[in-house]
């Protein structure tokens, strides 16, 4: 049976979680492998004005979430509790999620490759001098890395991938990278899930910018217009194109016949006397250039020292 003091601590911890769930509606589920206590301190300090970090025994946290969900009729928190598996924690926040994501990313720390660890990224040995003496070539031979001796030191001939993402780091790879003073990994809190107003989604969604959304909408509008024009079904997006296409057809008829209208008269005049319009355009070009130069000169004068000099 648990002691009374342990039960009190559990109740206090559960109440702390209840208070967080009352206060926050959004945040991240984060993976915390290889994150040092110093990193946690820095992260807490960096986001403490708007956010809170919850780390604890998963069984206790999940139980608190389920109890809160039942008492407050909020099943979302019970669903979120199912995602708390492994070495994970929760970052609650009231700030924009993209801002907190960027702030957390600042506290990644470089680390050497340790034998037996899983590589989070590909590791490349770059071409060039290593500073190692020729007696160290056995490390490179074991990993099939092409080398040559240049000025009494080992030189890697070309870039070579020694570890692939997701692979277990071997003793030879770890020893070689340590000798080359390469720290290929950076550890920090890894965002696994984002939750916001009873929705759960992938953190990659936060990387979508306004430009990406505009491009996506523009692509959809173009597709709708294309379908509408092909099927002759008018839509808001296709009507401007239909009007322009209609104008082109009427203009082509006017140019091929005696029929005319004001907009067609101008085109007919250009086609009948192209030299006159070419000469007019050539004459207008220097005037436009002079006007542009004048505007630039006026801007430069507005930025000068108003005619005063330090030596006056």
From TrEMBL:
Recorded GO molecular functions are: large ribosomal subunit rRNA binding; structural constituent of ribosome
Q: Region labeled Disordered — which residues?
A: 287-312
Does this entry carry the keyword Hydrolase? Answer: no
Recorded hits in Pfam families, A to Z, give: Ribosomal_60s, Ribosomal_L10, RL10P_insert
Classification via SUPFAM superfamilies: Ribosomal protein L10-like
Cellular component per GO, a single term: cytosolic large ribosomal subunit
Compositionally biased, Acidic residues: which spans? 297-306
Q: Which GO terms describe its biological process?
A: cytoplasmic translation; ribosomal large subunit assembly
Where do the Large ribosomal subunit protein uL10-like insertion domain residues begin and end? 113-182
Keyword Ribosomal protein found = yes
Instruction: List UniProt keywords, sorted A-Z.
Output: Ribonucleoprotein, Ribosomal protein
Q: Which InterPro entries match?
A: Ribosomal_protein_uL10, Ribosomal_uL10, Ribosomal_uL10-like_insert, Ribosomal_uL10-like_insert_sf, Ribosomal_uL10-like_sf, uL10_eukaryotes
User: What protein family does this chain belong to?
Assistant: Belongs to the universal ribosomal protein uL10 family.
| Protein purpose | Ribosomal protein P0 is the functional equivalent of E.coli protein L10.
Q: What is this protein called?
A: 60S acidic ribosomal protein P0
Please report the organism this UniProt entry assigns to the protein.
Chloropicon roscoffensis
